[in-house]
Design goal:
mainly alpha, 4 helices
Length: about 150
């Protein structure tokens, strides 16, 4: 009887902490806390302590398995969302944003343009006194600046 009371109190406290965490807009952490806090009451409901004392066919035990299943589903949901966020972050840092396709030549002219040259086509011959080696040194400087 004491074990059930303690486990219920721990679960209630954990769900309260999860509610406060969700109020602070940290939903994944709140779901993880809720999943952990359901485990003690699920174990009590399954009758893990007295499993051999004819609890295998108890509806309360099967309800406990349902609670443990809900806890497992919350864990799986949190991991799936974290995995999805992680892959998006990896794509964003790598510069491979598949949601906005861009043609390969779209960003090439922007490297050598200044504010006054914006309306001129990229294939027009350059009228500046720079040689082609100066152009490549500018590109090399830009690439070094970005660590490439």
């Amino acid at each position: 009887m004491l074990a059930e009371t303690v486990c219920s109190a721990v679960s209630a406290a954990g769900l309260g902490i999860a509610a406060v965490t969700a109020y602070r807009k940290r939903f994944l952490t709140a779901l993880r806390i809720a999943a952990y806090s359901l485990i003690p009451v699920g174990l009590v409901m399954t009758g893990a302590v007295g499993w051999l004392a004819s609890t295998a066919f108890s509806p309360l035990a099967w309800a406990g398995f349902g609670v443990l299943g809900a806890s497992w589903a919350l864990f799986a949901l949190v991991r799936a969302v974290e995995h999805r966020r992680g892959s998006r972050a990896a794509r964003a840092t790598a510069g491979d944003d598949s949601t906005a396709p861009v043609s390969p030549s779209a960003s090439a002219p922007a490297l050598g343009r200044t504010a006054g040259q914006g309306s001129r086509p990229a294939t027009a011959p350059s009228t500046s006194s720079k040689s082609s080696s100066d152009d490549f040194s500018d590109i090399e400087a830009i690439l070094k600046k970005h660590g490439i």
